[in-house]
Specification:
By secondary structure, the protein is α+β, with helices and mostly antiparallel strands. It folds into 2 domains: 18-157, Glutaredoxin (3-Layer(aba) Sandwich), CATH 3.40.30.10; 176-223, Antioxidant, Horf6, Chain A, domain2 (Antioxidant, Horf6, Chain A, domain 2, 2-Layer Sandwich). Helices cover 26% and strands 23% of the residues. The protein has a 5-stranded mixed β-sheet. A 3-stranded antiparallel β-sheet has the order 8-10-9, with no helix packed on it. β9 and β10 (220-223) form a beta hairpin. The longest helix is centred in the last third of the chain and has 17 residues, at 159-175. The model is unreliable at 1-5 (pLDDT under 50).
Length: 225
């Protein structure tokens, strides 16, 4: 018997299209976000403590994402009424030094779990088939998925890392480089290995390319700018 199997999206795939209701009105994704980087993320449920700390942090740090031409859009399987009531309650709560938090980015209503299933946000092996895990999809301005992250329900996301990933991706796209372990802006970047034996030899002999490089071996070269 032929089975209809839907493959979950992977890095390099075009972000699956969907239409949904949000706390900011209807959305056509990813078309409505074309030209921007996007962080599409899911959380297990409204009125839960870890999710509350995350939404306070997302909202308070939204200007940092905006500075990187990045839009935020959240999702859970809760109703619109639940979303609105929860976000109003969030305004009265304090987390670290964050107070009076107003969530301005859209939060998707996904009671049917259509979007959650489309993006592989429901993980039955966790023991819960009616809540999304903490998934993160970083999508570029052309609608291509560039990063996928999953967190368990007990662990809040690292926002410095989310911002670092976006900065690294944008740097790689702009300069044609890769970024090493623990890279942050301002540190040396990796120059991709030479495509020809001749170029590899020139690198090791100290011949300059278009940028100043430091090579320890033909495949291990760095640039500062």
């Amino acid at each position: 018997m032929e089975q209809n199997i839907t493959r979950l999206p992977l890095i390099g795939d075009r972000a699956p299209q969907f239409n949904a209701q949000t706390t900011n009105g209807p959305v056509n994704f990813p078309e409505d976000f074309k030209g921007h980087w996007v962080v599409l993320f899911s959380h297990p449920a409204d009125f839960t403590p870890v999710c509350t700390t995350e939404f306070i942090t997302f909202a308070q740090r939204e200007p940092e994402f905006e500075a990187l031409n990045t839009k935020l859009i959240g999702l859970s399987v809760d109703s619109l009424h639940s979303h609105i009531a929860w976000l109003r309650r969030v305004e009265d709560l304090t987390f670290r030094n964050y107070k009076n938090t107003k969530v301005k980015f859209p939060l998707i209503v996904d009671i049917s779990m259509q979007v959650s299933n489309l993006y592989g946000m429901i993980h039955p092996s966790t023991g819960n088939t009616t809540q999304a895990v903490r998934a993160v999809f970083i999508i570029d301005p052309e609608g291509i998925i560039r990063t996928i992250l999953y967190y368990p329900s007990s662990t809040g996301r690292n926002f410095d890392e989310l911002l670092r990933i976006i900065k690294a991706l944008q740097t790689s796209d702009e300069l044609g480089v890769a970024t090493p372990a623990d890279w942050v802006p301002g540190e040396p970047m990796i120059v991709p290995p030479a495509g020809t034996t001749k170029l590899a030899g020139e690198r090791m002999a100290g011949v300059k390319e278009k940028v100043e490089m430091e090579c320890q071996d033909w495949f291990f070269c760095f640039r500062k700018k």
